[in-house]
Amino acid sequence: MWNEKLTAPGNAEDATIAEAVHRTAAGAPDQAPAQPFARATPVTAPSSAAVAELREAILAKLAYAIGKTPQTARERDWFAATALALRDRIVDACRAGAGQVPNKRVYYLSLEFLIGRLLSDAMNNLGLVETTRAALRDLGIELDSVEGAEPDAALGNGGLGRLAACFIESMASLSIPAIGYGIRYDHGLFRQSLEDGWQKEAPETWLAEGNPWEFVRPEATYTIGFGGHVTMQSVSEGVIRRQWHPAETVRAVAHDVPVVGWRGRHVNTLRLWKAEAETPVELARFNGGDHVGAVAARARVEAISRVLYPSDSSEAGQELRLRQEYFFTSASLQDLVRRHVGERGDLRSLPDHAAIQLNDTHPAIAVPELMRLLIDDHGLTWEDAWHVTTNTLGYTNHTLLPEALETWSVDLMERVLPRHMQIIYLINWMHLEEQGRHGRANAAQLASVSLIEEANGKRVRMGHLAFLGARRVNGVSALHTDLMRSTVFKDLHALDTDKIVNKTNGITFRRWLHNCNPELTRLAVETVGEGVLDRPELLTGLADHAADAGFQARYRAMRRARKEALAKVVAERTGIAVDPESLFDVQIKRIHEYKRQLLNVIETVALYQAIKAEPNRDWTPRVKIFGGKAAPSYVQAKLIIKLACDVARVANDDPDVAGRLKVVFLPNYSVSLAEAIIPAADLSEQISTAGMEASGTGNMKLALNGALTIGTLDGANIEIRDHVGPDNIFIFGLDAAGVQARMDEPDYAKAAIAASPRLAAALDLIGSGGFSPDDPNRFRPIVDSLVHEDRYLLTADFDDYWRAQRAVDAAWNDPAAWWRKAILNTARMAWFSSDRSMREYAEEIWRVRVA
């Protein structure tokens, strides 16, 4: 089995992980080779020899790499020592065949990789969970406390970043040679806290004590330019070469994180770039007394890799975002070009040996940057460079929202990336000339397919740029892909009807079943066999037991254990006591108006009012659990969080609804928090406005763990319905066509509110200060936006959402029917594995052989 070498041969990056670990392990003695991989099941007992070996390895790391004794070590020290010991075993997994060069690699460029904690992944994929547990227990340490000491890697925000993390792990598990490229953020997005219900942001300090998983690669450093000017030089008759003279240069330094696949058969690399100044301090200014000014340039440079998604509400923020995107894209392309030249020589063969996937528009600048590298640095002709570029790049679109399809002002681009604007202009000119030659010279047609949007000031359309530069463009669910063809890329699609393809998202079952729900995994193994760990399609065998009362009891006991664990988390983080016997109704995702957390909150208010009106009725006990972060400058999203918290405060303290309704907003939503919530959820809220959620992956994770979905016909909800069956999901609301038709109706929101006394009453209570007596007008902007615009059609869908929620109540009150539905959800979710997604990408987009 081929194992990927993490760096390129032929230069200073020749070192494998195995060689690097002995250079960087702070003098730790070499360890004996790892034991052969043993098949991992939740019930396999580790051998005493394996436990002893790992125990001694952990102690050696604690002493020689951490510099602590067992008596002085903190939980964080035990985590670092354990991680380093396991990292050695990942290195061992790399050694076999490390000198082989794969025929083709995948390079996955993403601004986010929300990898979360890595210890559980490493233990699980190496088959060492119980071995590690036993080794630590021999030392008087519990594995759970060690796992809890690992900070979440702050490298992403939501679904986009978690998808990238699932994909890079699945590629390793399928032995697809791949390198993921991103930014090594010092602080990531932000740490969210709630002060009186208001979101507060603080830096996420995940790197405060270092990252034991990574290898620093100072030899893999590239120079990134910004600003300056471009000159022309005649190199031969009729041939002009342009040379970019940047006004500022930044160093991109590689930090490698190994990603081990299932059963340790293959290891890939996540290469993250850190921004460093060429000169860390202007010594003359420092010695002259200007101590702050002497490091000002360094601060500007290091801001590039400081935080994820800096606010773009100012011109400076917009420029920083552009600098971030170009920084990591350029470093990644320089790295892979250098690797290819070292291995193959001629860059004209790059499409045969490399597939570059752009995850959303953030790395779309790769189109002109690869052209620049090929033409300016390596002397290819325009024609050859364009052939290489358009046969190497692929582009994954993740949104249909116009405001989320990135554009950059031409003025900003010309100032920050002058050479790239020249290339973009030329690409656009040749593209529009081609339309003229085919009789498509209508001004409106040309404007719709142009890379430059001119309606409101000249702006570069990065989605259009990625579309033109890619061999294939893919959507991430069947509905999303169809809408791409008929909406945002309608006119470009008409020019090349084969370019857009669908690749529905998936999730890694190693993380989202094996790791986060060991009880359900054990139940699956005992019921359908150990092969289910390798072949998730065997989960379908659980369907045969869905109606069995004994199996239902075991399934329900598994859920009860997970709910009790989540109840402890809720109490610790919020002080709110919740009853595990209640229905746990969960909505966990980035806070955005189109995801419609507000619809959920308004229904919560209506339910609160209904319980108050009929307190003696037999209401279904519910715990409404929210989690998610709002962008710092997204005022309306932050107000929605405040509303949810204020509703929680009132409802939770009201004796009339005690035992029937609790509302919880869990702060600082993260991968590790999701791992606690998802196995405990009974109901999965996937209620975005139809046609606006590209796919979703939280819906897949929750359904896999047996939560029933209440949702619209949006994104992958449609495919989930098709797989689990319409009787095992709660669908409500307008479909995408209905949404568009309703938006064309005048005053549809006012009509919907007038037709729904329940909705009108809930909005009146919110708008009149029923949940904000200290500031009665606090939530008036929310109500006014619904009455006068309601862009996301909450009012249109409310009554049907209420109906679906009451259908959920009825189903919950029939336990045998509920647990049958839950088991069928788990049994029928195998198709949503990211392994399936990666096979489809490999075979149909990247043209890479899967072993």
Automatic annotation (TrEMBL):
Catalysis: reaction(s): [(1->4)-alpha-D-glucosyl](n) + phosphate = [(1->4)-alpha-D-glucosyl](n-1) + alpha-D-glucose 1-phosphate
UniProt KW Glycosyltransferase keyword: yes
One BP annotation, GO: glycogen catabolic process
Xref: PROSITE patterns: PHOSPHORYLASE (PS00102)
Top-level taxon of origin: Bacteria
Compartment(s) of residence: Cytoplasm
Matches recorded under InterPro entries: Glycg_phsphrylas, Glyco_trans_35, Pyridoxal_P_attach_site
GO cellular component terms, semicolon-separated: cytoplasm
Protein name: Alpha-1,4 glucan phosphorylase
